[in-house]
Amino acid sequence: MKLNVIKDTEPLQLDYRPEVVVNRKKEYRLLNSFVEMVSAGESQNLLLHGSRGTGKTLLLRKTVSQLESVNLVWVSCRVHDTQYKVLKQISEAVTGKNTKTGLHTSEYQRTIQERTTQVQTLVVLDEIEFLLLNNGNDLLYYLSRTNPDKLSVALTYSSSQEFSELVEERTYSTLYPETLELEPYSTEEVYQILAERARLSLKPRSLQHEALSYISETIRNPAIGLYWLKITAEHVEDAIHAEDVKACYESGLQSYVYEQLEHFSEHHKLLYQAIEELSKEETTTSSGKVYKQYQQLCKAQSKKPLSDRRISDHLKQLEKLDLIQAKYHYGGRKGKSREIRLSNRSVPL
């Protein structure tokens, strides 16, 4: 068995909850106020906004865990990305029963209405941007009008586009969430986060300062840094040096990408692979080239390729994951086109 410098893998996991969230005291205080209001029976809605890797989900999980006498419903919109799927999850949470598939939307709505009339309830919709790619507006409008004295909604949102621009005016006006912005972490803060996780997970004196500095100066998303650090730690036997983390960047990033795509289809993965292969030849590529490359990968694996429209939807989801960046061009013979590039690739080696 190959030796490595890891003594405990748990602090290197994304779902690990540290005792202290770095540089989020103000936000933590405001979230605690929100939780106290909901616990006291004062209905309120919240929008937690920040780019990927700013700690939205971690911070919200940490605060809502303190809720007392409140029915908490947590839904991942990355996994449950349609109104129907989310209503089913909420219905099962408030009843404590699994429901059969095939029920009409109105039946779920009626159940939720009945079960939240007397009980203070908080519905958390994590990564709402994936739901908004589909029929999320209808769901938000329904929730905002359902037992407003008893039912509160908390949303986490990562997109750069204003949330109010993605929902109808009537939805935003009835939901009217209190907005809390989380700024991206600085280089120093990323270093602090990774240093604390390393202290808990790695053997003493096994991580060189220069190695950790290189990671924190290269990326702004601590989640990527955790995967990068973990992969590097698995490949060394005594100590992690700067050269080790440089050599393991691609492997660490791939590990992060695979985790991000865990709940998505095989076609999402093939699409990302197509972009990755095209990016070896040029930094930016077109959506047309991506689709051709994707078709070739499908043919090689004896899979039927999806339609242009489905692929367009998949590309939007990869954007929401911040795995790719797209620049849109309108007009011309084909109407709308996209210039596509991989995210997190400007790494000095």
TrEMBL record:
<comment type="similarity">
    <text>Belongs to the CDC6/cdc18 family.</text>
</comment>
<keyword id="KW-0235">DNA replication</keyword>
<dbReference type="Pfam" id="PF13401">
    <property type="entry name" value="AAA_22"/>
</dbReference>
<dbReference type="Pfam" id="PF09079">
    <property type="entry name" value="WHD_Cdc6"/>
</dbReference>
<dbReference type="InterPro" id="IPR003593">
    <property type="entry name" value="AAA+_ATPase"/>
</dbReference>
<keyword id="KW-0067">ATP-binding</keyword>
<dbReference type="InterPro" id="IPR050311">
    <property type="entry name" value="ORC1/CDC6"/>
</dbReference>
<dbReference type="InterPro" id="IPR015163">
    <property type="entry name" value="Cdc6_C"/>
</dbReference>
<keyword id="KW-0547">Nucleotide-binding</keyword>
<dbReference type="InterPro" id="IPR036390">
    <property type="entry name" value="WH_DNA-bd_sf"/>
</dbReference>
<feature type="domain" description="AAA+ ATPase">
    <location>
        <begin position="42"/>
        <end position="181"/>
    </location>
</feature>
<dbReference type="InterPro" id="IPR027417">
    <property type="entry name" value="P-loop_NTPase"/>
</dbReference>
<protein>
    <submittedName>
        <fullName>Cell division control protein cdc6-like protein</fullName>
    </submittedName>
</protein>
<dbReference type="GO" id="GO:0005524">
    <property type="term" value="F:ATP binding"/>
</dbReference>
<dbReference type="InterPro" id="IPR036388">
    <property type="entry name" value="WH-like_DNA-bd_sf"/>
</dbReference>
<dbReference type="InterPro" id="IPR049945">
    <property type="entry name" value="AAA_22"/>
</dbReference>
<feature type="domain" description="Cdc6 C-terminal">
    <location>
        <begin position="271"/>
        <end position="345"/>
    </location>
</feature>
<dbReference type="GO" id="GO:0051301">
    <property type="term" value="P:cell division"/>
</dbReference>
<dbReference type="GO" id="GO:0006260">
    <property type="term" value="P:DNA replication"/>
</dbReference>
<dbReference type="GO" id="GO:0016887">
    <property type="term" value="F:ATP hydrolysis activity"/>
</dbReference>
